[in-house]
Amino acid sequence: MSQNAEHLEPQFRSDVTVELVRAAASDRDVLYAARVSTQGEQTLESAQSDAEASARDRGLINYLMRDRHGSPFEHNSMTFYVQAPIFVFREFQRHRIASYNEESGRYRELRPVFYTPAPERNLVQEGKPGKYVFVPGSAEQHELVDREIRESSIRAYESYQRMLAAGIAREVSRAVLPLNIYSSMYVTMNARALMNFLSLRTKREDSRFPSFPQREIEMCAEKMEAFWRELMPLTAETFDENGRVAP
């Protein structure tokens, strides 16, 4: 074994980590961006009462969302730190409307942390491609999944360690590692990009266009949405009211 990993025991997780590490995002950013096109700068300075201003602000954001005038929702930024299995990151990075920097298996020795589904995770797919549902599965199926994932992950990591110990480069040795090993990354996006991500990666009954995401990326999306709702509550509310369609 390599010197760094002698004392590291394999760990198994059924969750994901999402942290908001930096944000410059508020509903007022949307309003400034929208009004500057017709009224010029400093358009939020007015003699209106707070109640009047609040109603006008809500109406404007709803109009922008409803009629899909999307650019005002781009003048903000959120950076998230995410820990999840690698197969989740491959789905993340299909969304080319964000910036990503991921932990590199070429430059550091990867830690033996692996994903295994929680007992409540649905396991069995029923129906045809494009029209299917997932159902829980039996206790025996859950036991099989957990046992096979744990055993194969441990064997793969032992192979990885043997190659590293023999002097094989990290970028070659990592080829034996499974997709359920955890990685970490920073992802930065604006609210418009995030709404696009949420529209595809969360399953909600109030969505105009239903989506059926893999549960593990949906877990990330749910945590990201919770942070965003605190930053931009009015935008998030009108997103829901308009069928969760990205503007």
From TrEMBL:
The entry's keywords: FAD, Flavoprotein, Methyltransferase, NADP, Nucleotide biosynthesis, Transferase
Residues given in the record as dUMP binding sites: 91-94, 102-106, 174, 201
Active site: 201
Pathway: Pyrimidine metabolism; dTTP biosynthesis
Cofactor(s) listed in the protein's UniProt record: FAD
EC number(s) per entry: 2.1.1.148
Subunit structure: Homotetramer.
Protein known as: Flavin-dependent thymidylate synthase
Record organism: Pseudoclavibacter albus
